[in-house]
Amino acid sequence: MFFNSRAVAFLLAASTALTTVAFLTLVDDIPMAGYIVGGGIAFSAAFLLTYFTLEFMIFRELNKIYSKVDKLRQKQLYPTNKKLGDDYEVDLFEKDGNPLKRINQEITEFAVKTEQEIDKLKKMEIFRREFMANVSHELKTPIFATQGYILTLLDGAMDDENVREKFLRRAAKSLNQLNHLVEDLLTLSKIESGQIKMEYEYFDLQTLMVDAIEQVEHKASKKEISVMYEPPHDEVIAVHADYNRIMQVMLNLMTNAIKYNDEGGWVKLQLEDDEDSVKVTVRDNGMGIPEEDQRRVFERFYRVEKSRTKKQGGSGLGLAIVKHILSEHNSYITLKSKLGEGSAFSFILEKDNQANESTEF
Question: What is the DSSP-derived secondary structure letter of residue 157?
Answer without folding.
Answer: G
